[in-house]
Design brief:
- The protein has 4 domains: about 140 residues, Rossmann fold; about 100 residues, 2-Layer Sandwich (Beta-Lactamase); about 160 residues, Histidine kinase-like ATPase, C-terminal domain (Heat Shock Protein 90); about 120 residues, Response regulator (Rossmann fold), CATH 3.40.50.2300.
- The strands form 5 sheets. The protein has a 5-stranded parallel β-sheet, sandwiched between helices.
- The protein contains 21 helices and 22 strands.
- Strand 16 and strand 17 form a beta hairpin.
- It is of the alpha/beta class.
- Helix 10 runs antiparallel to helix 11, helix 11 packs antiparallel against helix 12 and helix 14 runs parallel beside helix 15.
- The protein is elongated, with a radius of gyration of 35 Å.
- The longest helix has about 50 residues.
- This is histidine kinase.
- Keywords: Coiled coil, Phosphoprotein.
- It is an enzyme of class 2 (transferase).
- It comes from Rhizobium mesosinicum.
- It catalyses: ATP + protein L-histidine = ADP + protein N-phospho-L-histidine.
C-alpha cells in the first residue's frame, strides 16, 4: 500500500476502564479514521500487525500489566516499522511529572502522551500526527521492497551471464563472494571462501602479477581487470577473469573493491584449439608451397599467384569464422541486454523520487545501451546487419549531413566537398551510409590532431570486368581523404580487421572500418583504403548504382501514443524459450495494460492457439529449439489466418526465405519501441 487506506489500516485501542474507549472510537469515527477496541492486553497484542496504523492505550491499563509479550512484538517489528503509541495519562500525570509514564517510552519506543481530560481537537491532532509518521513508514517499506526486487533481478541477470559477484573490504581484507564466484575458484556454495583462499588459489606463476595489478588499482583508482590461472583443490588448472571498481568514502579514500568474475577456461581452450588449427593449416600451406617451389623452380609467377590465393583463402576463412563467432556472441548478448534493459526500465518507474536509486538505475541503463550499440557494430562486422535497401540520392545525403559533419569534427578541421550536380541513385540503406560517412569523417579528424582539411568527394565509376572484390557494373564512389599522419603498409593491411585500432586505449573500439567493410560487402560493394605515412589516408566506399529512381521521403509516422483505439489493452500470446527474457517482456506488456499469456516453446504456443483461445497478437522469439519463430508463424497462420504476428530476434536480420507477412523487432528493445510496434500492427490489422 502506498499510503494508509482507511479500509486496511486501523487505530487499535486498549482502554478497559470507564468510557475512554467509547469516546476514542467516537472521535476517530468523526475524523474518518477506522478503529478497533481490544478488551484486554492479550487480545490487544494479538491484534497488532503491519496494518495497525497506531495504538491508543490508557496509562492505568499498563501500570501493573505483564508487558513482556507487547515488548517482544515491538522488538520484532521489521526494520521499516516503528508503530506509534498514544498514552492517555491522568491530569498532572504527564511524563515530566510522572516517572512511571516516562518509563513507558523505554518499553514502547515511539510514544506520544495526551493528558485527560483532553479536548477533541487536541486528541485528533495528535492522532493525525501519528498517522503521518506511519504513512512515511509505509512509504519506506515500499522503497525497500522495490530495492530488494531490483537486487533480485540483478542477481538473476548475473546468474544468466554466469558472472560471480564479489566484494573486498580493503581495511579488513574481508571477502564477500557469491556462490557462482566461489565455483569459479573450485569452492562449493556453502564453503568458507576468504581473501586468503582466493590468493592461495592463484597459480604461483601468476600470483605476483595479480597482486601488483590489485595494488595499482587501489592506489590509482583505475579499474581492476585481469585474466589469470587458478589452481583448484583437486589440482586442475582453470582460467578466471576478474573485473572491479574502487569505491571511495566521502574523504576520497578507497574503502572496497566491488566486481564480477567469470570462468573463461572454455573460451581460452577454444581459442587455443583454433590457434593450433591455424598453425596446422599454415604448416600444410607452407609445406605445399615448398613442394611446388622444388618441383617447379622455373612457374615462379604461378607460385606467387597461388600463394596470394591461398593467403586470401586463409584470410577469408578467418574472417568468416570470426564473423560467425561475433554474430553468435552479439545475439546472446542482445538477449541478455533485453532482460537487463527491460527490468531496469520497469524498475525506474517504481523508485519514486529516490535520487540515489534513480542515479544508479540511469547509470546501469546507460551502460546497457552502450552494450546494445556495441552489438550493432558487431552485427555489422558479421554482415548480419538488417539493411533497408532502396534507392539513395548520395548528393542529397552528403549535402544534408554537412552541418552534422562539421560539428562532429570541430572548429580546427575544415570540410571540403566535391559533389557533381547529377549522380544516379545507389542501392543502399540510407541510415547505414550516413553512419559510415560519419565514422570516416571522425577517423579522418582523429588522424589530424593539429587540424587540417577533410575532402569528401562523390564520383561515378565503372568496373569494366569482374574482380575478386567487385562485380562488373556502374558504381558511385564516396571518398573521404585526410591530411593526417597516414599508415604504413603493415598497418594498412590490418586496418579493417575487427578490434584493430591505431588510437590510444579507450579512444576507439576498432570496429569502425570493419563495420563499414561489412556494410560494403552486404551492398555488393567494396571499401578501398590508400595511405602513406605523412601524406594522409583516403577511404573509398564503392556502392552499386540502383536501377530504380530515388524514393521521396516518407511522412513521419504518428507516435505510438496517438494511434487511437488500436493501442488499447490487448490479449497477447508471448512465446520465448528463455524464461528470463519472457519474464521481462511480459512485465513490460503488462505495464502497458495488456493481458499476457506466456508460452516457452512453439509446441506450447500452438496448444494455446488450438484450444480456441482468442488472441489479438502473437509475439515470438525467432531462435528457439525444436521450432523456430518462422516455423511457428507458419503453423499459427493455419490455425488463425488473420492473427497479427511480431517476431523478435537477437540477430539483426531474419534468415532469407521467411516470406511471411510478419513484423519484426530487434533485441534489445525498449518498452516504447514495443508499444509503437504493437500500435502499428493493430492499425494495419
Amino acid at each position: 500500500m502506498a499510503t494508509i487506506p482507511n479500509r486496511d489500516a486501523i487505530a487499535l485501542i486498549h482502554a478497559p476502564l470507564g468510557r475512554d474507549a467509547q469516546i476514542a472510537v467516537a472521535l476517530l469515527r468523526e475524523a474518518g479514521i477506522p478503529s478497533q477496541a481490544a478488551p484486554d492486553l492479550a487480545s490487544f497484542t494479538a491484534c497488532l500487525g503491519d496494518d495497525t496504523a497506531l495504538a491508543i492505550i490508557t496509562e492505568e491499563a499498563l501500570r501493573d500489566a505483564d508487558l513482556r509479550a507487547l515488548s517482544a512484538w515491538i522488538e520484532a517489528q521489521p526494520s521499516w516499522s516503528d508503530l506509534p503509541f498514544i498514552i492517555l495519562t491522568n491530569r498532572g500525570g504527564g511524563p515530566e511529572r510522572n516517572p512511571a509514564a516516562a518509563r513507558l517510552s523505554e518499553v514502547l519506543g515511539n510514544v506520544s502522551f495526551v493528558e485527560r481530560p483532553f479536548h477533541a481537537t487536541t486528541f485528533i491532532s495528535v492522532v493525525r500526527s501519528a498517522l503521518r509518521g506511519r504513512r512515511r513508514q509505509y512509504d519506506a517499506r515500499l522503497r525497500m521492497e522495490a530495492l530488494d526486487e531490483g537486487e533480485r533481478r540483478l542477481q538473476t541477470a548475473l546468474a544468466a551471464g554466469r558472472l560471480g559477484a564479489w566484494e573486498l573490504d580493503l581495511a579488513t581484507d574481508m571477502l564477500t563472494a557469491s556462490a557462482t564466484c566461489k565455483a569459479i575458484f573450485g569452492h562449493g556454495p556453502d564453503e568458507d571462501f576468504t581473501y586468503r583462499d582466493l590468493v592461495k588459489a592463484i597459480h604461483p606463476d601468476d600470483r605476483a602479477r595479480v597482486l601488483a595489478t590489485l595494488q595499482n588499482s587501489v592506489e590509482t583508482g583505475s579499474d581492476y581487470s585481469i585474466e589469470y590461472r587458478t589452481v583448484w583443490k583437486d589440482g586442475t588448472v582453470h582460467w578466471a577473469e576478474l573485473r572491479a571498481q574502487l569505491h571511495r568514502d566521502r574523504a576520497g579514500r578507497g574503502i572496497r573493491l566491488v566486481g564480477v568474475s567469470a570462468d573463461i577456461t572454455a573460451r581460452l581452450e577454444a581459442e587455443e584449439h583454433q590457434r593450433r588449427l591455424n598453425e596446422i593449416l599454415e604448416e600444410r600451406v607452407a609445406e605445399r608451397t615448398r613442394e611446388l617451389e622444388q618441383a617447379h623452380a622455373t612457374m615462379m609467377a604461378e607460385v606467387s599467384q597461388r600463394e596470394r590465393a591461398e593467403e586470401q583463402l586463409r584470410q577469408a576463412q578467418k574472417m568468416e569464422a570470426i564473423g560467425q563467432l561475433t554474430g553468435g556472441v552479439a545475439h546472446d548478448f542482445n538477449n541478455l541486454l533485453m532482460a537487463v534493459l527491460g527490468n531496469l526500465e520497469l524498475l525506474r518507474k517504481h523508485v519514486g523520487d529516490n535520487k540515489k536509486a534513480i542515479r544508479l538505475i540511469e547509470g546501469a541503463l546507460q551502460g546497457a545501451r552502450r552494450g546494445a550499440s556495441l552489438t550493432q557494430r558487431l552485427l555489422a562486422f558479421a554482415r548480419r546487419q538488417d539493411l533497408q535497401i532502396g534507392p539513395v540520392d548520395m548528393t542529397g545525403l552528403v549535402a544534408g549531413m554537412a552541418d552534422l559533419l562539421q560539428r562532429s569534427v570541430g572548429s580546427t578541421v575544415t570540410i571540403e566537398t566535391v559533389v557533381p550536380e547529377e549522380l544516379p541513385p545507389v542501392s543502399a540503406d540510407i541510415n547505414q551510409i550516413e553512419l559510415a560517412l560519419l565514422n570516416l569523417a571522425v577517423n579522418a579528424r582523429d588522424a589530424m590532431p593539429d587540424g587540417g582539411t577533410i575532402r569528401i568527394e562523390l564520383k561515378q565509376a565503372r568496373q569494366p570486368v569482374a574482380s575478386d572484390e567487385l562485380a562488373a557494373g556502374d558504381y558511385v564512389v564516396l571518398s573521404v581523404a585526410d591530411q593526417g599522419h597516414g599508415m604504413d603498409k603493415e598497418t594498412l593491411q590490418k586496418a579493417i580487421e575487427p578490434f584493430f585500432s591505431t588510437k590510444e586505449l579507450g579512444k576507439g573500439t576498432g570496429l569502425g572500418l570493419s563495420m563499414i567493410h561489412g556494410l560494403a560487402l552486404q551492398l555488393n560493394g567494396d571499401l578501398k583504403l590508400a595511405s602513406e605515412p605523412g601524406k594522409g589516408t583516403t577511404a573509398e566506399l564503392w556502392i552499386p548504382v540502383s536501377t530504380a529512381p530515388a524514393a521521396e521521403p516518407e511522412p513521419a509516422e504518428a507516435p505510438a501514443e496517438n494511434v487511437g483505439p488500436a493501442s488499447g489493452p490487448k490479449r497477447i500470446l508471448l512465446v520465448d524459450d528463455d524464461v528470463l527474457i519472457a519474464m521481462s517482456s511480459a512485465d513490460m506488456l503488462a505495464d502497458l495494460g495488456h493481458e499476457v499469456v506466456e508460452a516457452h516453446s512453439g509446441k506450447e504456443a500452438l496448444e494455446c492457439l488450438g484450444h480456441g483461445a482468442a488472441f489479438d497478437l502473437m509475439i515470438t522469439d525467432y531462435s528457439m529449439p525444436g521450432m523456430t519463430g518462422g516455423e511457428l508463424a507458419r503453423a499459427a497462420r493455419q490455425i488463425a489466418p488473420r492473427l497479427p504476428i511480431l517476431i523478435a530476434s537477437g540477430y539483426a536480420e531474419l534468415p532469407p526465405g521467411l516470406d511471411l507477412d510478419v513484423a519484426r523487432l530487434g533485441k534489445p528493445y525498449t518498452q516504447d519501441q514495443l508499444a509503437q510496434q504493437i500500435g502499428k500492427l493493430m492499425i494495419s490489422g
